Amino acid sequence: MKKWVFQGELLISASAVGFYGDRNDETLDENAAVGDLFLSEVVKKWEEATEKEKNAEIRVVNARMGIVLSPKGGALSLMLPVFRLGLGGRLGNGEQFISWIALSDVLRAYHFGVEHEEVQGPVNFCAPFPEKNKNFTKILAKKLNRPAFFHVPSFLIKLFIRQQGKELLLASAKVFPKKLEKAGFLFENQKLQQAFDTLL
Asked: How confident is the model at residue 197 (pLDDT cuts 50, 70, 90)?
């Protein structure tokens, strides 16, 4: 096993799949172009800030993370109380893709990135099976043995949360971890049902 590198030879910078913007059902890997949302530009600038390390011949991994699932924090921890009350439901038309990853796989992917020198540049940290919002809702509700009849219309999200809500809740990014899989990384939680079984 290789040693951990703490001498400026490697920089892993946390990034996000928000880089790709709102792309409907387009298949996206690390070669896809930047999106046209505000969040896309923020992520692009964040990644550009690591150029000086690349120019200094330091290996840089821009870890473009999907929604990290953990019952102890993040989006899932906010959703659980709502779904446990039977008040869960799809957002908008529910057709937007959610690119997600279990917290345990995030940690394993970081470790993998340290040990495998071929992993560099933009790297998608997301499970290989993204889910549409409506399916995410059904799978979570079923796991909790609760109904999921509620529906938050797009216009309400845009009205009350405005641009932020549109970009964070309604944007669709069908992202695949091409570089990680090519390098031989194996996800412990490939499908959403697996992840919920493990996490909940």
From this structure: very high
- pLDDT single digits (tens) 151-184: 999 988 888 787 777 888 999 999 999 999 999 9
Whole-angstrom distance between the N-terminal and C-terminal Cα of the chain?
32
Cα gap 128→15, rounded to integer Å:
18
Q: Which amino acid is at 19?
A: F
Of 71, 138, 130, nearest in space to 98 by CA: 130
Is the pLDDT reported for residue 67 higher than 60?
A: yes
pTM listed for this prediction = 0.92
Pick the closest to residue 131 from 82, 85, 192, 42 (CA basis): 192
User: Domains in the chain, please, with CATH?
Assistant: 10-195 (3.40.50.720)
Buried b (16+ CB within 10 A) or exposed e, 88-115: bbbbbebebbbbbbbbbbbebbeebbbe
Residues shown for the chain: 200
